[in-house]
């Protein structure tokens, strides 16, 4: 199955937006979504007592790093795209944590890895040095640093629009996740 052929079912889409589809400036739901019953608990946006804001449940200690100004996590089209990519890797939002580093400008990679206990980190549109890593490496190169596997790639929006980027990302993800 190609990444271009993956579509989300209404159930998956509804589970991504369990409590609301649209929020106002005070983060109050404007449009309520009815709850969807399921045996498996869907991944939700999470915030811990320490104030970390992220999407997913981080069950497999996989950190996805994005950098967007003006939004808490990432745009809906990019969320749908990354969900399709995860599905192709036999993963879902429950397995990962998606963090927008724009919310944490003074944090280093050690803060992120320490908090999320990350074994794999995918950097979307953030180069390794900007993330605070002590080494620099090119896009689409799987790199191990301090017992953590890193992958640096273009932004999700760029990957979504470029077939070559999609294929390069797919090869790297197969290498990381088997």
Structural write-up:
The protein has about 180 residues and is α/β, with parallel strands linked by helices. It has one domain: Uracil-DNA glycosylase-like domain (Uracil-DNA Glycosylase, subunit E, 3-Layer(aba) Sandwich), CATH 3.40.470.10. Helices cover about 30% and strands about 20% of the residues. It has five helices and nine strands; from the N terminus they run H-E-E-E-E-E-H-E-H-E-E-E-H-H. A five-stranded mixed beta sheet has the order 6-5-7-9-8. The longest helix is centred in the C-terminal third of the chain and has 15 residues. It is globular, with a radius of gyration of 16 Å. The two termini are about 15 Å apart. About 10% of the residues have low confidence.
Short description:
With 178 residues, the protein is of the alpha/beta class.
Strand order of the largest sheet: 6-5-7-9-8
- Indicate the mean pLDDT: 81
Query: How many helical elements?
Result: 5
Helix content: 25-40%
Could you give the distance between the termini? 15 Å
Domain count, please report it: 1
What descriptive keywords fit this protein?
single chain, 178 residues, alpha/beta, Uracil-DNA Glycosylase, subunit E, five-stranded mixed beta sheet, two-stranded antiparallel sheet, 5 helices, 22% strand
């Amino acid at each position: 199955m190609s990444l271009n052929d993956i579509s989300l079912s209404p159930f998956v889409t509804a589970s991504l937006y369990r409590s609301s589809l649209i929020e106002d400036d005070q983060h109050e739901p404007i449009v309520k979504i009815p709850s969807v019953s399921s045996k498996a608990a869907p991944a939700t946006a999470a915030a811990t007592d320490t104030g970390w804001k992220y999407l997913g449940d981080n069950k497999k200690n996989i950190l996805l790093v994005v950098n967007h100004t003006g939004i808490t996590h990432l745009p809906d089209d990019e969320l749908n795209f990354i969900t399709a990519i995860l599905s192709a890797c036999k993963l879902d939002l429950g397995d990962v944590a998606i963090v927008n580093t724009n919310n944490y400008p003074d944090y280093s990679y050690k803060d992120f890895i320490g908090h999320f206990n990350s074994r794999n980190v995918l950097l979307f549109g953030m180069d390794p040095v900007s993330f605070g890593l002590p080494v620099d490496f090119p896009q689409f190169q799987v790199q191990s640093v301090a017992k953590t596997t890193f992958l640096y790639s273009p932004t999700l929006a760029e990957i979504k629009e470029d077939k070559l980027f999609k294929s390069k990302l797919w090869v790297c993800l197969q290498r990381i996740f088997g």
